[in-house]
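Extended Data, record YtzH-like family protein
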Amino acid sequence: MGLNRQHQLQLIKDILTDHQLDCCGTVAEYEQVGRVIQLMLAKEDLDADIRQLLTDIYDYSQKGTSVHSIDAHIEAHQSHLSEWVENIPLS
């Protein structure tokens, strides 16, 4: 049984919150966020605002898989992380 939309969004929010608060992360976290977002974008009937939000987070996660310093990448995106965490709808 796969995750429903609410659980997928909660997973993304939890990982981004950890990045925001801890200023560190892993390639595996970026890959997981990317996979979940790809599934959501392919399957879900999403409104334009959510689709754009997920696309922005997906771009962040894809760049994060290949950066020299993950911590620096997270630090450079702190303002985006705050915005994304705040704007991910959980209901």
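Summary. The chain has a mean pLDDT of 94.
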